[in-house]
Amino acid sequence: MAKLQQPWVLIFIIIISLQTTLFHVSYADVGTAAHYSAPYIPTACFGNDVSQFPTSNLFAAAGDGIWDNGASCGRQYLVRCISAATPRTCNPTQTIQIRIVDRADTSVSRPSTNGATMVLSTTAFGAIANPSAASVNIEFQQV
């Protein structure tokens, strides 16, 4: 009887192994990113306060999907480029941490593409993708 149970145990182990290999749990969201350039102030979050900008210049304006009635101001996200319309646009090894400082719909400088989830500063966009692209698809996670 013990020999009959062994094949079932082996099959069970194989099925569990395949499930853990093929199905990954992801805690990130997927969206789009555009870019914008100076002037960046005043912002919807912090007005004319220049201390709102990280010294790394890795910041963004929130699109409607993450704006959350202004609650997104000051939030930080890990962002990476996952694809674009043009091949080899993304820098797939680069993940950046950005800070939300503005609302995309009301920013002083207009985004390269309307309707993006995030509009990254020129520095932030250039860190994850070719800056000549108008927009890219991103994976992002609040930290």
Description:
This protein is α/β, with parallel strands linked by helices and 143 residues long. Helices cover 22% and strands 28% of the residues. It contains three helices and six strands. It has a six-stranded mixed barrel. The chain is elongated. The chain starts with a helix and ends with a strand.
Biggest sheet: strands, sense, closure? 6 strands, mixed, barrel
The end-to-end span amounts to: 53 Å
- Put simply, the count of helices is 3
Oligomerization: single chain
- Residue fraction in strands: 25-35%
> Low-confidence stretches at least 5 residues in length (pLDDT < 50)?
none
How large is the radius of gyration? 21 Å
